[in-house]
Amino acid sequence: MDVLSDRDPTRIGTHTLLARLGAGGMGQVYLGRSPGGRLVALKVIREEITDHPEALARFRREVETVRAVRSAYTANLIDAGLDAAPYWLATEYVPGPTLGNAVATRGPMPAETCRALLAALAEGLAAVHSHGVTHRDLKPQNVILAAQGPQLIDFGIARGTAQTALTEAGFAPGTPGYTAPEVLLRNQVGPAADVFALGATLAHAATGRPPFGHGEPAGVSYRAVHEAIDLGGVEPALAALAEACVAKDPAARPGLAEVIARCQVRTALVEDTFYGGLAALGEPVPPTPTASATHPAPRAVPAAPVQASLDPHALPTASASNGYGYTPTQVAQPAGDTRRNRRPWLVAGAAGLIVGVGAAAVLTLLPGPDKGKDASGGPGTTSAAATTAGSDETVLQPPAYVEQTNPSRDFWSADPASPEDAGECGLPAEERNQYLQSSISAAGTDAPYTSGKGRIGFRLSDPAVKDGKPYYVSVAVKPAHPIDADTGRPIEGGFQENLDLGYTSKPVDVGTDWVYLTYPDDFQQFVNGKKYGDAIPVENDPGDWTVLVLHVQGPKQYASVDCRGFVVK
Description:
By secondary structure, the protein is an alpha+beta fold.
């Protein structure tokens, strides 16, 4: 969990906030304390999407789902505020690490622990299904290893059997690597899809590896549809059960009762020594902030009762877009936009409800100070900060690379009516910086970039805005379509729009001098702290490409400050 920032409220309803637990596509999750001293996990819907009826309906539907699914395997609803923005919900807080965090810390689980955990999760899913709800996003990050047994969290995209789909056309619900083939291919969601996710989650617990490998979301989804799951080194009987759960044909998968029977559990999971050690990994609860420790201008969010009538609708629509050209211009964030910095999907020690669809990854920031305007290069040392010699002042160093943390829904589209191929982005910038200027052109000319090599430039127009502090900038160049890492070309039969961040440059401390990068020479892609591949030639993927200028603020933090694009013909 992270400490509260000066942008966070100090109270939500009647609850005092203690820390940040995580963030996702729709909201920020906090750890809070009720007036009577009870710990709760509170999710607040992001302000910039509260004006979208579809987003609000989805959030209300989540409240209804959590309220309906009352089980020993889920965190119960405590309170919610749905009458006025900002909207929020509070569930009981369950201490313990996520399964993903536990595996990353302690490594793969023994076979017997995996069987006991699988049986408990299957029992939990059966309880959810008994309420007429499918989870649709079961994965290691959505399982809390509580002392009394595992807890299922995040019902943000869960769906009742009588409800209509809440998925935009072209998008599949769930997380790549844990989403069933029938969901990816036909958006066919049902209990069998949860069984597939259960098998994939078991594979991760038993191997410590992603069930269908690393890489771009579309590539991982392709392997989930066409290739075998990674179960190398797993005990044969346990591997056979996992393989049955992830059968490509949903009709061939076992039911949850059969899964439980095949686990042959003879003792309680809490009696398992290895599991007990994992449950103890949860982070300690921070103390209630004192008046002197809170922000100077605290903001409180009023309480509101849960509404009785909740109507299901579609996913959030894109917010108002901004137009951008090709020449350097000042880019300001639209008034009222409050998109937060991107953060990894993390729930450690709470039954938080993090909403989002896509691959979870760690944003690794490694130093490699670069005042010389060279944006190429690879990883450096493992420290994210250095101390100035002879002083106690800590000076942040630019990271050696930027790695995707959340799905990227920034898409630039060309305006066919413009002779200069101007266009617009579907989402506003996440962070306001009216002094940031950027440009895109063909390398060596001022002509629009349509093929070959491109030149991307950026700078700050006013030196005073830095106030002596570094301002690290990286550029992300995003192809028009999901790219197959093996061929360097669009994936055949792609299941969704390109949610990948694309290829990024090495961050630099930018000032008033123009910094110029060459695409594809200065761009690479990193996954899990390692170089995944070089940027592809633009000719490999004709269409509308997106260029994002990212402000890199520190470990696990970067935000878009400019969105442009170009057309590859």
